[in-house]
Structures are given as structure tokens and as C-alpha cells.
Amino acid sequence: MTAARPYLPQLRTSFADARYPGGRQRQLAVWWNEIDRTLLVLVLLVMAIGIVAVGAASPSSARRLSKTDVKLEDLYFLWLHLRFMALGLLVMFATAMVPQNLMRRGCILLAAAMLVALLLVPIVGGEVNGARRWLNVGISFQPSEFLKPAFAVTVAWMLAWRVRDPSLPVISLSAATVGLIVALLMLQPNLGDAILFAGAWFVLVMVAGLQLQRIGILAACSTAALTLAYLFYDNARHRIDSFIGGGTAYDQVDLASRTLLGGGWTGSGFWMGTNKMSLPEAHTDYIFSVIGEEFGLLICALVVMLYLAIVMRVLMRMMNEENLFIVLATAGLIALFGGQAFINIMVNLQLFPSKGMTLPLISYGGSSYVAQCFVVGLLLTITRRNPCLEREKFDWRAAFEKDSVL
Amino acid sequence: MNTLAAHRAVPSGRIRLVDVRRSLLMTARLRVLLVCMVFFFLAIAAMLRIGWLGFVQPAPQQRSMAEALLPPRGEITDRNGVPLARAFPAYALWYNPRAMDDGGAPLVKSPREVAARLARIFPDLDETAVRDQLAAGKPGYIRHRLLPEEANRVNAIGELALETTQESDRHYPQGMLAAHVLGYMEEGRAYVGMEQALDTRLRDPAQRGQPVVLSLDARVQGALEDELRRGMLSVDALGAAGIVLDVDTGEVMALASLPEFDPNKLDAEGRRNVFNKVTNQVYELGSTFKPLTVAAAIDAGTVTDLSRRWPANRPLVMGKFRIRDSHTIGASLNVPETLMHSSNIVTAQIADELGAARLKQVMADLGMNERPYIELPARGYPIWDKGEWPRLKAMTVSYGHGVAITPLHLASAYAAMVNGGVWRPTTLMKLEPGAAPEGRRVFKQSTSARMNQLLRMIAKYGTGRNADAPGFRIGGKTGSAEKPGGSAGYRRTTLVSTFAAAFPMDKPRFVVIIMLDEPKGTMASSFQRTAAYNAAPIVAKLVPRIGPMLGVLPDDTRDIDLTDLDPLVGKGR
């Protein structure tokens, strides 16, 4: 876009000024026109549901975690959540403001940094609940949380090299990267995140055009890997056993099921739930069940629809995107976001063995909440496009005539 | 990588790259579509699962806001808002041998030790029985109505198999007060009393936030039970019944049946006493019927002259049957004397003159041919001869034999007699001012006024003298009926003694019925068994207690005007 520009004598032109002439206000107006506002509204809606849901679950967890000497007030987690939310919104909008090029470079650097941090975790990490996942630098955070989005963007960037040179073995390279990460995660142990990374990578290479037959091989391999995990990985075995065997009365899964069904279709009413009080991790992993008890299964269905709407909205916009990197990065990011959301929902609905995975943007905050906001920020900036440009419509018929690609 | 195979023929690099880009993009879009579909199916699966959970799974109990906020069962209060029954959140101790769920022994410690520790918490626990229950390993309740502190101590034993589950219990804060009116709850079900009668209303989420207000006055009820119990014990009676009824509205101010039971803790002994003598037991109530007969005769016009004298010195012979008095009162008696001295012979003659049909009609109008009108589920069927009454039947009914009714029937009939002649159904629900039912007219107003004079004369000069509390202008009639049974048809020494009273007679407000079942002659009753010596004194003690609460203050300067009748009985000359 700069090629045909006449020379304009300017003393100091920053990068941003060059892109958006007319000052900050104009710059903001352009940004506002370029971002996907529907996505933004959907995301804010989910976050609003999150405030209410954490408010509902907070008394349960606060009472559970209170000790005789330290008594947490009922809404302790709600206030904390609101603070994390403020931080998350800041991160989200700041990320959404960053230009795409800068974002890509930043993500690659972040991925490198987080990979190093992940390497450090087994050595200097802090242990919580028998898993070494946390790194303490002033504030404690899980490197894997921030690695996830950065990883998706970086792998997308690697896979997009093929546009320049089709002969590069990008898939093998990316496979090596994800293999390293998964191995590091299994050391922690963190099976949930490992599955999420592998899944996101799988979506990425699939979108990048991996052949169907290789996809089949990959699927078979992942089944085998899961079986191995089942056989040699105690934590996973326990969870899968209790999922298949039905578990015992009053175990976590049973309590969650009681909570989910406690309110029937219309719910018992805000703060009227009683089953949630005996549910561990009510404000994080099982917040969907708390929503079920207090607001009813109908609202649960609404939450499912909202997540589906976000995923659909993002992916459908990719149907006429012309930049392969953008398509790949978006698919990777939304696979992380949607994957985590649906795994959590499936766990709560007892369709999936329990994992330590939060419901993105609804569960109580912490570094993972900020990381999810970061993901949304990345999605917002990556899907930015000039609304005045006509795009080539996706030609459904042409697409299916060339059935060889699918 | 291999998707590019088709494009190998393209000659030069740059064009080829454009082609590669297009092809990669096309593939990417289709694969994105595939990802879309995967998420779509995931969402469908989640929705189906939600639907399945909602419709099929352990039928989700619909819980409403009301369920959580309102008491599980409505409160019952007396007419002044004093709580009589309320919801009480308590714990139950349930033995769940499978709580540990490990296939091993249900308890960690030995049953003996656990039973001993439970007995330390509950000193009245049957330790042996509990030990056997624990050892047998059968699930079941060990105890109900645990206090929160007791539940904590049970949990501190540390046995998973001892589960303390919350249950909503019923608490009757006034103890045994009005137990027969209230009824009781057992295992979540309501039995007898208003608990059963109002069960739907008390459980209805739309209404149970508001307490049910009964017509009872807890203070009056307390006084009635207190005096009734004292009277019953002093004459060693089998039981006793009492009612205080508002004559103008039909509201029951107090209703007691003794011996009572404790609805908070129903034991074997209490279970025997659940039967309500006031509304369910029918008695031949004897001489208390005489004023009703006289009222019917005055109303019908067969008695126009109260000074007319009837022969009374010789038993009335009707075929094989002889109607006699307890002792010869006099050669002849006029109407006031008949009532004052309670003469069967004269009352029978008055009834005979009135005619069986008309007497029967009045008794039916007073509601004696059907079950009493009250909300309670336990209401006795009167023994009532539906066919045409022969002469003898009318004669025996006139002094209270041959028709068996509940004390509540009698209270209702007396209310109609003294309130100006209007019969109204009785109720246990508080009525708003002006909401009293219209009722039906049984007696003329003039008849009622005359009866008020006669009733007052009985209490002032006659057999009811022991009931005449100073200043309360009590009127009333004794009744000492022989109970059916024995070889002669009636047992002459086994009595049901009743006193049916109203006060104040110058403007009757309340009817009081006191009934004692099989009183004995004791020192307290001067070794007499008749109502004048056991039931009447109870009224004399009760009315001064309840009168001021009900707005009737003692006043020596007021009374019903008896000056026109006094000369007939040799008074006031």
C-alpha cells in the first residue's frame, strides 16, 4: 500500500501515524471499524455470564477454603475475579490494538520465551496438588497457559511458509515442536493441556492441508497414545476408570452431577443452590454445573450455544480470507478456545472423563483467565479487516467439485 | 505437501506459487468447514445430553425459589398470632452401612464402641438396640430430631456410616396445648387435627408463607385445659372434654380433650389419647337436653304459661318403661322449677305435649342428625333415629337419652339457643369481623330471651349453683347421663356428667361445655358423681379466668332481668 505513495515531507512519523493518518482518535475509529464487533459482543456476553456464575459459585469455594483462623468472605472469589477481569480486559484490548505484523512477531518471541519457561518448570517450578506447573516470578503463572496462544500463532506462521516454498517440511517441524511441548507437559504432569496442544496442532496441520489418509494415521496414533497414557499414567487411569465405571457416591463427578441436576430446567435461583456447597472446584472446573443448579439446564444450553456461536463466527469469517497465515492462526486459536470450552462442558455433562480444565471466560480468573483474554485479543486483532474491501465470495460449488482436497 | 502433486506441470516458479497459494487456501477453507462441523456436532451432543439429563435422568426435581425461601410447611397460629405449630429444621441420624463403599465392614470402630459413644450423646438411647442395629448392617434411622450440636457430636465420632441428614420437622412450641386441634406429623405425613385438615394449604407454595390463623385463643385454651385437667384428676374421671364457643360467629375459642398427647413426641401412651372426645366421641348427654326441649315447646307454643304446674310425684309409666326422677322433687312443678331441679318426669310430659315430630325437627335443625360442622377430619356420626319417632322416643330424647351426640353438637345447639335463635356451623378458622355465616333460625328471638332467663335461674337457684362465678352472670344446665351398658341397659353409677353453660346471660357471648367421662365420687366432689358437683365447679373456676381475656368483665351490678320469673320459684318477693 505504500508503493504508489507520493513523498510527503514529515518530520516525525511514527509507525502508527503512517498507518492511520489523522491522530489517535481517527486511529481508534479505524480500529473500531476493522475489528469483528459481533465477536466482541459475544465474548463480552460470555464474560458477563462469568461474573454472575462466579458470584454464584464463590460462597461454595470460599466456605470450602476457609480455615478456622482465616475466614474468607462469601464473595471473596467474585471480588478477586473482577480484578482479574479488569486485568484481562486490559490485556484483551491492548492485544486487539496491536497491528498484525507486530502481533505475529510478538507471539513468536513469546512462544520462545514460554518454551524456555516451560523447560525451567521441572527444575524450579512450584508444586500444587501433586503437579509441578507453576513458575513463580513475582506472580506465579503457568507458562503453558501463555504458551498456548503463542504456540498456535507460531505454528501457523511455520505452516504458512509453504506459500513461499512448498518444499519446506513444515509439518514435520511443527510436529517436532509440539512433541517437545507435549513431552514437557507430561512431565508436570498435565495431561489436559497436553491433549489441548496436540489437538490444536492437529487442527492446524489439518487446515494446512494434511492428507486425509495421514489424518487417519494421526487419529489412530492419538488413540494409541491415549491408551498408553491410560496404561502408564496413574492420574489418567483413575479418571478414565471412574468415568467408565461410574465412580463412587459423593466423588467429584457424582457431586457435580448432583449439582448440575439440582435445579431442573429453570434452576433453583441465584444463591439458592444447595448442592454446589459440597462441590469442590465449584468456581473453576465445575462452574458449568453451578450454572446448571442455580439457573437451570436451559441456561446451560444457552451457554453451549454461545460458545458455538463464537466458534462459528470466527471460523465462518475465514471462509473468504485470502491470507493463509491468518486462516491458520485463527483456526489454531479458536481450536484452543473452543476445544477447552467444549471439553469442560463435556466433563460437566459426564460425556468425558474429568480433567483439570476451566471454562474459558466464565470460570474464576487467575493467570488462565488473563491468558484466555489474550487469546480473544489475538483473535480480535488477527481477524481485523478493512470493511470497505470487497472480498471474493467463497465458491461452494467450485470447492466441492475439486473433491480431492478434502 | 502432496496436494501440490497436481501442479508439477506448471512451468515457472512465480506462477506456480500463486497457484499453490490458491490451492492451499481452498484446502484450508474446506478443512475449516470440517472443523466447524466438528464443533457443531460437539454442541449438538452437548445439547442432546442436556435434554437427556433434563427429561430422562433421575427425574430432575423442580426446585423453585419458594421451595428454598418458604418454610417447608406453613405455620399455624392462634387468633392472636401465637405460634402453635411451626417448621423446625432438624437432623435425622441415618445408618448407611454402605457409606464406605469398599465392601468391608460398615463401621471403622466396633458396633459396641459406636453405640456407647452414641449413648453418651443421647443418654436416653437404647444402647443395646442400637448396637444390634449397627451390627446387623441394615440401613435405617437411628434417631430423629437431632439438634445441630448433637449432629456435630455425631459427626465427630468419625463414622461415615452415621449420616446426619437434614429433615424438616414440625415443632409445637406450646407443647401439649391444643394437641387434638393441631394433630401431629409423622415421617412427613399429617395425622388428625388441623395438620391433616389443612395439609394441602400448609404445603402449597403459594400459601404456606402466610401462617394459618386458627380461631383458638391460646390463653383460653390453656386455661380450659388447666381447669379441665384439675377437675378430671380430682374426681378420677377417665377423660374430659371442653369447648369454649363464640355464640355469634361459631368460632371455637378453645377445644380440649383429655387425657392429651404430646404432638412433639408421640409415644405409645400418647397414641391411645389421639382420639378426640369433643368432635369424635358421641355421648348421650342427658339433662343438658332439657332446656332444648323446653325451648322447642315455648317456640312451638305448646308451653305458653311458665307457671303451669305439671304432676311430678309419680314415675311416668309408658308401657313397660318407667320415667322417674332421682328423687321426688315435689307433687307438681312449673317450668322454671322443672329445669332448676332437672325433672325427667315433667320434661317428658312437656315433650309429649309438643309432639315427637316437632321435637325431632328442632333437634335436626340444631344439627344433631349429622356430623358436627368443624374442619377437623375426625368427626363422629351421631346416633340418630332417622325414622318416625314414637311417643316414648320423644320423651327420652327430651331429657337427653336415645340420641347420642358429640359435645360439639351440644355447644352448637346451646349457642343457637342463647344467641337469639340462630344456628351457625362451628369453625376452627378465625373469621374476619362480619364474616360470620348467616346460619339458620331455629328459635324465635323471644324464645331465646326466655331461655336465657331460665338458664340463668338454673345457675342462680338450681342444680347449677356450683357454676355461678360471682359477677359473670353464668347460666347453664347440668347433665348427668347414665352410660349405656350393663344388664339393665344403663349403668346407674357410671355417668357422663356435663355442664353446658353460657355467659354473660344478659348478653350471651360464649358457650362453655365441660364434660367428664365416668367421674368417681371423691372428697373433692363431696362424694357425688353428678355434674353439679364435678362439672359445674370447673365452669365456676374457668369463666373468671377466661372472661376478662375474652372481653367479659365481672360486674355485680349487671344481670339478666329475672323479676318476672322469680315469683314462680318463690324468690324475690
UniProtKB/TrEMBL annotation, chain A:
> Which InterPro entries has this protein been placed in?
FtsW/RodA
Q: Which reaction does it catalyse?
A: [GlcNAc-(1->4)-Mur2Ac(oyl-L-Ala-gamma-D-Glu-L-Lys-D-Ala-D-Ala)](n)-di-trans,octa-cis-undecaprenyl diphosphate + beta-D-GlcNAc-(1->4)-Mur2Ac(oyl-L-Ala-gamma-D-Glu-L-Lys-D-Ala-D-Ala)-di-trans,octa-cis-undecaprenyl diphosphate = [GlcNAc-(1->4)-Mur2Ac(oyl-L-Ala-gamma-D-Glu-L-Lys-D-Ala-D-Ala)](n+1)-di-trans,octa-cis-undecaprenyl diphosphate + di-trans,octa-cis-undecaprenyl diphosphate + H(+)
Q: Which residues cross the membrane?
A: 38-56, 76-95, 107-126, 170-188, 194-210, 215-233, 286-312, 324-349, 361-383
GO molecular function annotation: lipid-linked peptidoglycan transporter activity; peptidoglycan glycosyltransferase activity
Enzyme class, top EC level, equals transferase
Chief localization: membrane
Q: What is the recorded name of this protein? A: Probable peptidoglycan glycosyltransferase FtsW
Automatic annotation (TrEMBL), chain B:
InterPro entries tied to this protein: Beta-lactam/transpept, Beta-lactam/transpept-like, PBP_dimer, PBP_dimer_sf, PCN-bd_Tpept
Q: Where in the cell is it found?
A: Membrane
Per the database record, which ranges form the Penicillin-binding protein dimerisation domain? 71-188
Disulfide bond as UniProt keyword: no
**One Pfam family from the UniProt entry?**
PBP_dimer
A GO MF annotation of the entry reads: penicillin binding
Record's protein name: Penicillin-binding protein 2
Write down the species.
Croceibacterium xixiisoli
